[in-house]
Structure formats: structure tokens, C-alpha cells
């Protein structure tokens, strides 16, 4: 079981992965018209199952992301959220997420940009942890991280739900307490 400062594996039984897949299939092509939102953003209010999860976990954000990736995502730090709940939907086993230690200086990479993130110069960072997304996880996005696609013949599809107000450590404690109660 993954349990470290970067990733905390959640109990898959707490979430209906098939329902999340169905939501993806229904919402994949429905882009939000508001220029404030990115192409991968969707609103939680559009889904009864998502609203029920948000009622259970009030710290879940109002926006979730659908990521369809057939190429790697360079190292970056998310700037719009503290942590995420990431769910593997399809073909996530053909990729790895690499987490890096926080560099001390000279870490911004201005050669590329990605919405709501700070690009990181990988050469100034040391690898701290590597994992494959095969189970739902709480993920600490305040550390530099990248997604490496090992097989571009399939598209990695994941569902990511941002947590904006609570830190990774605080959110992890909530899930640990819940696990003890079950």
C-alpha cells in the first residue's frame, strides 16, 4: 500500500470506478464555455454521484479534471490546488508518475508552459518517488511531478479531483480515521 509524503493509497471500495468511467464517457466532449476553465475541467454540480461524494467529503473541490494523455507531461508543480484524489480509468498502468524533491533554487523551466502549474527544470531536482496509478490515491501536488507515458499506443485516462483548502497531511488524516472506523 502506498503511504508516504507524496501518495496515500485509498480504499477502492469507497469509490465507484465504473460510475466515474460512465461520467467520463458522458462528459468527455462537454467543454465548459467559460474562458476561466481549462479544457480538462468539469463541474461537480453536473453529476449526482459526484455531488454525493462531495457531501461525504466536504473538502472535495467544485471542479474535477479529466486527463487523456498519449504523451508524457513534463515536471511541474500544480499552483491551483494542494492535493488531488486521482482515479485510474483506463490504461494508467502504461505510465508512471515521478515525484521529485523540492529543489532549492533555479527550478523554474521557462521553455514550456501548462495552465495552472509552474514548470520545473528536472535537472535541478532529485527523484523522490515513482508509482503507477492502479488504485485511487491522494496525491500531493505541491511537490514537482511528471507523468511518463511508457506506451503511446494507448491513451492514459484518469480522473482527478482537486482539494484546494486542505493540505495533503490533513486530508490524509481524514482518510486514515475513516479507514479505522470501517
Describe this structure in words.
Helix content is 19%, strand content 32%. With 182 residues, the chain is α+β, with helices and mostly antiparallel strands. The chain is built from 3 helices and 11 strands, in the order βαβαβββββββββα. It is globular and about 45 Å long. 26% of the residues are buried. The model has no long low-confidence stretch (mean pLDDT 87). It has a 6-stranded antiparallel β-sheet with strand order 1-9-5-11-3-2. The chain has a 5-stranded antiparallel β-sheet with strand order 7-4-10-6-8, with no helix packed on it.
Summarize, please.
It contains three helices and eleven strands, in the order E-H-E-H-E-E-E-E-E-E-E-E-E-H.
